[in-house]
Design a protein that fits this description.
The chain is built from twelve helices and no strands. It is mainly α. The protein is elongated and about 115 Å long.
Length: about 190
């Protein structure tokens, strides 16, 4: 009692479909480069990262290395938003040791040169010189500061002005008062420490 096995039509179609897909997979690959087989995620987005995007992310997150930023930008197609979200969410992956990013200095000499030029100027500029408060410092500290008390009472009475110039003047006065009072407190603390 021998049983003969025969293929019916659905089984025949399935065998042809699977063999066709296997032939297509082995003989008609979309990319035959060795890097595509080594890193399939980078083969899709193999374009170089934009140096301006790398610089932008490096300024936002100085604790993250440029190599990791370039790696992630290349993996996600250059999306600054996706890289930023990944840094904020779980951090960036460490790129493999074989990943060597192109030199940023050779590809974009102008942005680092322009950003280093302001750093060549005097680095620390105190708030007194920045806001031209030297004349107010030279006033004797024994004199009461009527402008601070008047400004505080004036601000409470008037509230928030509808005039833009008045608001700006009020905010500038408050800023000056805060800087000067912080300086006075620092000087008093230094006198007490000595």
């Amino acid at each position: 009692m021998s049983t003969t096995t025969s293929l019916n039509l659905p089984q025949l179609i399935l065998v042809l479909l699977i063999s066709g897909l296997a032939i297509r997979y082995f003989f008609f690959r979309p990319s035959s480069s060795p890097s595509a087989t080594a890193h399939p995620s980078t083969s899709r987005n193999s374009r170089a990262a934009n140096p301006q995007h790398v610089e932008q992310i490096a300024q936002m997150f100085p604790q993250v290395g440029r190599r990791e930023i370039i790696w992630d930008l290349q993996r996600n197609g250059g999306s600054v938003a996706a890289t930023t979200e990944r840094i904020l969410g779980r951090g960036l992956e460490v790129p493999p040791p074989s990943f060597q990013p192109p030199s940023l200095a050779s590809s974009s000499p102008s942005p680092p040169a322009s950003s280093s030029a302001p750093s060549a100027q005097p680095i620390p500029q105190d708030l007194i010189t920045r806001y031209n408060l030297t004349s107010k410092i030279q006033q004797s500290p024994s004199q009461p500061q009527p402008s601070a008390a008047e400004a505080a009472s004036e601000a409470k009475k008037a509230g928030w002005s509808a005039n833009k110039n008045e608001r700006q003047a009020l905010l500038q006065r408050r800023r000056e008062e805060m800087i000067l009072s912080a300086r006075r407190k620092m000087e008093e603390r230094d006198r007490k420490a000595v």
